[in-house]
Amino acid sequence: MNEKNKKPFVLAVVGPTASGKTWLGVELAKIYGGEVISADSMQIYKGMDIASAKPAEAEKQGIPHHLMGFLDRNVSFSAADYVQLANEKIQDILSRGKLPIIVGGTGLYIDSLLENVKFSEGGSDEAYREELYAYARDNGNEALHARLAGLDPEAAEGIHPNNLVRVVRALEVCKVTGRRFSELKKESRLVESPYESLIIGLNFDDRQKLYDRIDMRVDEMVRSGLIDEARQLWQESGMKTAANAIGYKELIPYFEGKAVLSDCIDTVKQETRRYAKRQLTWFRKNPRINWLFLDRFNKNNEILEKCKKTIAKYLEM
Fold first, then answer.
1. I need a labelling partner for 43 at 20 to 30 A (CA). Which of 35, 50, 165, 264 fits?
2. How many CB atoms lie within 10 A of CB 122?
3. Is residue 230 assigned to a domain?
4. Residues in a beta bridge with 149
5. What is the pTM of this model?
6. Is 235 inside any structural domain?
7. Which of 187, 213, 237 is a domain's end point?
8. What count of other Cβ atoms lies within 10 Å of the Cβ of residue 80?
9. Residues 36 and 181 in one domain
10. pLDDT digits (tens, 9 = 90+) for 153-197
11. Which domain covers residue 309, as residue numbers?
């Protein structure tokens, strides 16, 4: 596809949850002979299918999807891990003459991959790390996140309080290196990317339309067995990993007999809407994203035609 540039071409489809990324990624893969690489921090885990909106086989339409459901829930996984595995998948897909299409809503994964972030270990302090986890257990994730905000406001802005692994890592790096985590991240972007990449972002002019889609998706998840899936995770592991995933942690009060189910489901919807807002805040900082506002189109084929024109224009540059 990309004859004018020596670098291999990679396509990405990003946006908030429930915006239609899975559908568009599959359709573009069908048009351009591509394969999908997921960029979702929860779809990587085994057994976390419904709340993470892993596409069913019918949705995939025969298109290979990579980096989904391959990791045990008790295994930690970082952005550096993602970049390493995604790069391996990209090379594999390219070697077979296919187009790699990155699809997901985890902005850190996507930016780190396409901007060729070089992760420094930054040293480690296991005792301090355990101290931080203990502090979070005793005082709550928000309290630990506030400590990070005091040391490195920029890093704290990009990390959700419930993403305990990243909050702890950022604080650990600050202590070990004596520098801000955000500063080290910026320095890690100084090496040029090995890819030519085009990013298509999905959004809506009318935010309420996105929120309505989110509410409908949650209702569908409940019909598809979300409650049973969450209960099994809770019974098996106390939701060690799932406690960070929207759609699971909000149901814990119901399992503990402290809240009624309908209220917990409403909380899932509310937290998902908030998450979508945070995703959009992250992605809007990236000037390279070509935004498609879906409520400006009447039919799906119009969306695909716009994508094809955008891709063609980029490759002609």
1. 264
2. 16
3. no
4. none
5. 0.84
6. no
7. 187
8. 16
9. no
10. 998 988 888 888 889 888 988 888 888 888 877 776 667 899 999
11. 9-117+193-224+280-316
* 221, 311 Cβ separation under 8 angstroms: no
Query: Are the C-beta atoms of 73 and 240 separated by less than 8 Å?
Result: yes
Which residues are CB-neighbours of 296 under 8 A, at least 6 positions away?
Answer: 205
Q: What is the pLDDT of residues 56-113, one digit of tens each?
A: 999 999 999 999 999 988 787 888 889 999 999 999 999 999 999 999 999 989 998 9
- CA distances from residue 265 to 53, 219, 255, 258, 308 in whole angstroms, order as listed: 16, 8, 12, 14, 38
Residues 63 and 153 in one domain: no
| Length reported for the chain | 317
Residues 6+ apart with CB under 8 A from 107: 14, 279, 282, 283, 286
Give the chain's domain count. Answer: 2
What's the token pair of residue 202? 């999905």
Enumerate long-range contacts of 153-161, CB under 8 Å, 24 or more apart. 154/180, 154/182, 155/180, 155/181, 155/182, 155/185, 158/108, 158/182, 158/282, 160/278
Q: Report d(CA 25, CA 101) in Å as an integer.
A: 7
Residue 33 and residue 98 in contact, taking contact as beta carbons nearer than 8 Å: yes
- Domain CATH number, residue 54: 3.40.50.300
Q: In DSSP terms, which residues pair with 34 in a beta bridge?
A: 99
Say yes or no: 133 and 104 in one domain: no
